[in-house]
Amino acid sequence: MTDKNNHILVNVETTYLDHESDPAKARYLFAYTITITNEGDTPARLLSRYWKITGGDGHEQEVEGDGVVGQHPYLAPTETFTYTSAAMLDTPVGMMQGHYNMMDDNGSRFAVDIPAFTLAAPQKLH
């Protein structure tokens, strides 16, 4: 999944963590790796994040926080920042969407949308 806002490109890849999940206890753990690329002409810093995580049962949780993985990446033009984090669901399928709040070197603040992406455990054949 890729999206471009304010010349900031966001790419998301997801992985189901089978060895850390426990379906018998409704625990499904997913890793997501995000690559953020500044394709604009002005450097920008990521200030905070907002996520809406929706389980397959429609249950929603919202997560807001400072930076990502304890950092506030500063992206000069053409630079990228990649990080991996995780989300726990109580259903085998869900989705995430959100945005990053950023500020460019001119002091302008802007949001970078992160379009919805699916978290899905592989179906096991019996």
UniProtKB/TrEMBL annotation:
<dbReference type="InterPro" id="IPR050718">
    <property type="entry name" value="ApaG-like"/>
</dbReference>
<protein>
    <recommendedName>
        <fullName>Protein ApaG</fullName>
    </recommendedName>
</protein>
<dbReference type="Pfam" id="PF04379">
    <property type="entry name" value="DUF525"/>
</dbReference>
<dbReference type="InterPro" id="IPR007474">
    <property type="entry name" value="ApaG_domain"/>
</dbReference>
<dbReference type="InterPro" id="IPR036767">
    <property type="entry name" value="ApaG_sf"/>
</dbReference>
<dbReference type="InterPro" id="IPR023065">
    <property type="entry name" value="Uncharacterised_ApaG"/>
</dbReference>
<feature type="domain" description="ApaG">
    <location>
        <begin position="2"/>
        <end position="126"/>
    </location>
</feature>
